[in-house]
Write a structure and sequence with these properties.
Elements: H1 2-18, E1 26-29, E2 33-35, E3 38-46, H2 49-70, H3 78-85, E4 91-92, H4 95-110, H5 120-132, H6 138-146, E5 153-156, E6 161-164, H7 177-191, E7 196-201, E8 204-209, E9 218-222, E10 233-237, E11 241-245, E12 251-254, E13 257-260, E14 263-264, E15 269-270, E16 276-281, H8 284-297, H9 299-308, E17 313-317, E18 326-327
Antiparallel strand pairs: 1-3, 2-3, 3-7, 4-6, 5-6, 7-8, 8-11, 9-10, 11-16, 12-13, 14-15, 16-17, 17-18
Helix pairs in contact: 2-7, 7-8, 8-9
The structure holds adenosine-5'-diphosphate and magnesium ion.
Adenosine-5'-diphosphate is lined by residues 115-117, 119, 123, 172, 174-175, 178, 202, 245, 249-250, 261-263, 265, 288, 291-292, 295-296.
Length: 336
Amino acid sequence: MAVLAITAASALIIRKAAAPKPPEFTTGHSGTRMVMGTFANITAVAEDEKTIAESIEAAYKQLVAVDEMMSDYKEDSELSVVNREAYERPVQVSEPLFDVLQTSVAYSKLSGGAFDVTIGPVVQLWRSIDKKGTRPTDEEMAAARARVGYEKLILDDEKRTVRFAEPGMLLDLGAIAKGYGIDRAIEAMQAAGAAGGLVDVGGDIRCFGISPKMTRVWRIGLDNPDGSGDIPMVLNLSDTAIATSGDYRRFVMLDDQRYSHIIDPAAGSSANGLTSVTIIASRAVEADALATAVSVLGQKKGLELVESVGNTEAVIIPGGSGLEFIKTSGADAFID
Ligand code: ADP
Ligand code: MG
């Protein structure tokens, strides 16, 4: 008995001595910064302060670059050039923009047109409500809607050009560029040597690697749409992205009615339905596009769509009285 005990103890000591010393990590934060018309927060975990600072700056630089390229608010963005010229001539674009447009068309097909980056003419019309304070006329709405349709977007992947089949078309990457930027930012952090990190742009988030708690799990709270500031649900994420769409954060008030900034392309008007749609997916671009698509499709068709896509879950708050959550079959695995 005694001999056995000693043997076991010495084996333990040998194993301990042979194990490499685990690296020690520290955590750094970017502080709140403005980009893409909203607030960004970046967290980096690394062995030293220099890597932390470099990872944060590399991530932020990617967000700014994507915003400058893909914003339709900026007149000199690459997207705005396409919007001005792609009916007149095929416009050659950068790889990132072409990549986003191809991804966008794929999500349009997947969602049966609920997600559509050619929604620009209708979005512009609804934005003008804000300035004029009147509802667009039926004629204006019909004219804008007629100019929408991803099948009228001509992408040539050999020449990397974009062309509009009809005049008056406008691209709007508002439902996907944020996700795309977050993915690029995460890659930049990994390349800069971070052991872990999180990029949050307006509540759309992706995380990877070691968390500040020195585990592989990042705990992310979902906001209560009532604006109370409480967190009714916590998600445990590892190397995962989430995006939330809904009418509770951005909308236009007109004659006491709320108009969502998300448009149903089939109707050409505001998609009023779900208060909040959160998508969990491996990439932020996917989560962002699907969150908008599900907001348009509504609860039933939206859940069906997410169930049909592998490794993707949804948590929907339908709205109305009380706080109800509707989830896809695998969502519970992420809920604390
Ligand atoms: P948020 O901007 O709150 O993150 P979304 O990701 O859902 O929300 O993006 C909404 C934006 O996407 C709108 O402001 C508009 O620019 C654009 N958009 C609106 N409806 C659609 C749609 N059906 N398909 C693609 N983009 C849309
Ligand atoms: Mg979106």
